Amino acid sequence: MRLILASKSPFRAALLKGAGIAFEIADARIDERAVEDALGIDAAPEDRAQLLAETKALAVSERETDAFVIGCDQILALGPDVLHKATTMEEARRRLLQLQGRTHTLHSALALALNGEILWSDVIPAHMTMRPMTPNFIGHHLAVVGDGILGSVGCYQIEGPGLQLFDAIDGDYWTIVGLPLLPLLKQLRDRRIIEA
C-alpha cells in the first residue's frame, strides 16, 4: 500500500525517512489562510491545526486513490493569539522579541486519509518557554541561522542553534519539529500500513 506525506516540509520528510518509513511526497496545494478563516477568528488553535492537517490529507487523498495520506500542520499559540510564519527577517526579529521570556504552545496535528475519507486525526501540544534575551542576542542569532528560519512558525529550529533560545520544553522532539511520530507510527502499525 502506498503512503504519501502531504507536506512540503523537508523536516517532516527527514523525520519520516529517519524512522525507516517508505513514502512519497505530494503538495496538498491548499490555501491555508482560507481554510483557517472558514473557522472564524474565535476558533481554538488546536481546532485550526486539526482542520489544516485533515484538509491537506483529504486534498491529496482525493487525487491519489488507494494510497494512505498523512496530513500535518502546526499552529503556534501565544496566549489567545495565533501566530503564523514570518515572511521577512525583520518580522522574525520582532517574533523572537515577542516570544522571549514567555511560554507558547505548538499544536502539532496529524491526519490519516484514504480515498477521500479521514481515518484518524489527533493534535498533540508542546509547551515552549523561551528564556529572556537581549535584542543584540536575537540579532546575532538571526544572523547565524539565516533566512531559512522563515520556514518555522516560531522563527527557531530546536534541532540547531535555536535550542539556545529556551529555558524549558514540555513536549517531545517530534511534536516540536511538526510530526508527532509515536502516535503516527502506532496508527500505521495498527492499520498494517507498516510492519508491526
Cα distance spanning the termini: 15 Å
Helix-residue proportion: 25-40%
Proportion of residues in β-strands: 25-35%
Query: SS-based structural class?
Result: alpha/beta
**Helix segment tally:** 7
General shape = globular
The biggest sheet, with number of strands, parallel, antiparallel or mixed sense and barrel status, is:
7 strands, mixed
Q: Which blocks of ≥5 consecutive residues have pLDDT under 50?
A: none
What is the class in the CATH system?
Alpha Beta
Q: From the alpha-carbon coordinates, what is the Rg to the nearest angstrom?
A: 17 Å
Number of structurally distinct domains: 1
Mean pLDDT: 95
**Strand-and-helix sequence, N→C?**
EHEHHEEHEEHEHH
